[in-house]
Input
Amino acid sequence: MDIVQSVLENKTQEKDSRKSIEVNKDVDVETDLGTLLALDYNNLNIKTLKSEKEKYLTSLTRDNVQILINKIWELPIERVEEIIVAKLPKPKYVLPRARQIPKPKPLTKWQQFAKEKGITSKKKNKSKLKWDDELQKWIPTFGYKRTKAEEQKDWLVEVNDDSKVMDDPFAKAKAAKVERQSKNELQRLRNIAKARNIKVPQVGLPTKEYFPDSRQLSQAITVARTSTASVGKFQNRLPKEKDAKGIAKQVPGMKRKAEAPPRNLQDEKKRNKDLADNILNSNAKIFREDFSVPKVKPVKSKAKVKKGKKGVRSTGAKKPKAGKGKRDMRLKMGGRKRR
Output
């Protein structure tokens, strides 16, 4: 009977090669679910490691991963689009990274508006074609072929107003389309500037939708009024209109208000200190105490001044002297040539 039982046990082990999900170890494996980290402090079997290295390491890794998966299933689980998801806790260990963790992208204006109003995006129809009752054929849902199909539908435009008989409705529709495209492109660039923390310059007088705050509207009016050669000196003001504050640097030629005098000695010291720090931190070249200037000796003139009976005369240039009867052409001495 013992032989039969042992044979049956061997057969069952051969049929079911899968191991149990329960793993028992002498020392409990420390896990960090936030980083999916498992730390095994148990001693290694050196003999088995030397004899069957690959098999032993594979079995050890399988057991540790099974312990980690068992811990994950103990977390609160939810179903998202037919997928079971577990929310991991905050990590305990800080693992070194080669690169910085990417920051979440800021929401666009539409995404922020949809989040505040609770608007959820609906799944679009996956079909690329749709039936058009007017053309009696299948046309693309998106793409340039759909635009051509729309042009076939709008080949005739009815004009009800006699004053607009000479107007070209197709040209108007084309201009409106170009304006919509330009508006979308401007909004796309504004979203890029907002994502990269780039300040958009305040130029001109945009429409009301860009002025959620009365202060911005006041700034735009001031910029528009001062955008003349006289910096708005001869422009009429609106009733109760005042210059916007804090835009004197942006508008060239606009007078800035003088700063109030310091109220006490500490305020004056602080202003002077800030001014000195601003100058020292700037890239301007200034002279320092350790800056050495090369010393240049003054050049002395060779001319001498003598005082005599006839007045002051200079003896800087000497008259050429003759050879005194001993002329030697090799010496080339100066003097008046006698004949």
Notes: The chain has eight helices and eight strands. The two ends are 159 Å apart (CA to CA). The mean pLDDT is 77. Strands lie at 30-32, 37-39, 77-79, 84-86, 129-132, 137-140, 305-308, 311-314.
